[in-house]
Structures are given as structure tokens and as C-alpha cells.
């Protein structure tokens, strides 16, 4: 999950000696919110599309560009989850990756992150999604896992969605043919099933056969 494994080959960073007009065209061509700017191989900062639009075209004052840059970036030991958080905090769809020596490694884009995370079994597997809630002091991930697995279910992942002093909500992704028993077990352990998302194929089959029976009886 290190970001260096997901660098985009299509993103070209800007240079400090490029004109604002040229940089703006680069941002628009690559559909970016920001463009990483470098002085040689050294990272200067990121400049937003709207700031480039405000700069006077043709003004190649390097110090003027630096005044508009924002210094957010990833290093080689950051993960995809770090990238998501940093993108959210800075309202950007691209992040430069630099070394500890401030040298350019590459860029990670929002699109690449979404594509890679969509491959995770937690998301890609056909599974039941269930949100369970319990008092925060009683929350135990091992208990949740044990409830699923003791009912012959297979866990794909857990995600803590909300965590206040009083209450915690956990998204559970799993496969099982014994949903009723799992729901009842959660209740016995003090968990409340807040939401569940799944396609109950057996129930759909019963409804289809019932509809066919009614159609037959009415003919």
C-alpha cells in the first residue's frame, strides 16, 4: 500500500520558470485541481488552478509563483490511506511524492487511488454489508469477528465509521448464508444492527415462485 507503487505516469509536474499561462494549460489538460511545481528536481509547492487563472499571463516572475504555492506532499513511506486523508484536507486530486531530500519521485492521483482500492476484497467481493452499533466502552473488533466466524461466515473486513465517547458504529463486510443467526448473535452480545445491505437470493426465489403460484391459481 505504499504510494510509490501507485505513481501515475501521465502527470507531468510544472517548472518554476514556466509562464502562468503554460502552467494553467497543463492543469486543464490533465484535469487537475493543483499542479506540483519544481525548481529543477527540488519541490517548490503546489499551485491551484484558480490561482493560476488570477495571475497575469506572461508574467514570469518566479517569486510571484512561489507566493501562490501550498506545501503539501507525500513521502515514500506514506500509504494510500495517508494519501486519501491528505487529498481531503487540501481539496486536491493530485499529490506529489518526494524524497526526504526534497527530490521528485512522482505523483499520485485521486483516480489511481480509487481504481486500486476498488480491487481490495473488502470492496470487490460479493458480500453482505452490515453496520452494527454499540457503546464505545464495549466495542471489540475480535468479538465482531468471532460472531461472524462462529456462524460460518467469512470476514472481508471491518471499518470503524463513527467513534464518539458514547457510541461506535462499525461497517462489517462478510459472506454468509446464515444472516438471521448472525443478527440474533449480535443482539445477544449487545450490538444493534443499524443497517444491512445484501441481495437475499433465497427470498427473491421464494417471491418469484409465490408470484408464479398466484398467477397459476388465477388462470
TrEMBL record:
Domain CBS per the UniProt entry, residue ranges: 64-125
Keywords of this entry: CBS domain
Signal peptide stretch: none
Superkingdom in the source lineage: Bacteria
InterPro entries in alphabetical order: CBS_dom (IPR000644), CBS_dom_sf (IPR046342)
Pfam families given in the database record: CBS (PF00571)
Keyword field contains Ubl conjugation: no
Protein name as annotated: CBS domain-containing protein
UniProt lineage: Bacteria, Pseudomonadati, Bacteroidota, Flavobacteriia, Flavobacteriales
Amino acid at each position: 500500500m505504499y504510494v510509490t507503487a501507485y505513481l501515475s505516469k501521465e502527470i507531468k509536474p510544472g517548472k518554476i520558470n514556466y509562464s502562468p499561462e503554460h502552467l494553467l494549460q497543463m492543469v486543464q489538460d490533465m484535469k487537475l485541481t493543483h499542479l506540483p511545481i519544481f525548481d529543477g528536481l527540488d519541490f517548490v509547492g503546489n499551485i491551484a488552478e484558480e490561482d493560476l487563472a488570477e495571475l497575469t499571463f506572461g508574467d514570469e516572475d518566479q517569486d510571484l509563483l512561489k507566493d501562490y504555492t501550498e506545501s503539501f506532499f507525500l513521502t515514500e513511506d506514506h500509504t494510500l490511506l495517508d494519501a486519501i486523508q491528505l487529498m481531503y484536507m487540501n481539496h486536491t486530486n493530485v499529490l506529489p511524492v518526494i524524497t526526504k531530500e526534497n527530490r521528485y519521485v512522482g505523483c499520485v492521483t485521486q483516480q489511481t487511488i480509487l481504481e486500486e482500492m476498488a480491487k481490495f476484497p473488502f470492496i470487490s467481493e460479493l458480500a453482505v454489508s452490515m453496520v452494527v452499533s454499540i457503546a464505545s466502552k464495549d466495542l471489540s473488533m475480535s468479538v465482531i469477528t468471532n460472531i461472524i466466524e462462529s456462524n460460518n461466515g467469512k470476514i472481508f473486513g471491518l471499518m470503524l465509521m463513527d467513534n464518539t465517547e458514547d457510541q461506535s458504529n462499525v461497517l462489517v463486510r462478510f459472506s454468509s448464508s446464515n444472516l438471521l443467526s448472525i443478527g440474533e448473535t449480535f443482539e445477544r452480545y449487545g450490538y444493534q444492527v443499524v443497517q444491512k445491505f445484501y441481495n437475499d437470493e433465497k427470498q427473491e426465489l421464494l417471491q418469484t415462485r409465490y408470484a408464479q403460484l398466484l398467477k397459476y391459481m388465477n388462470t
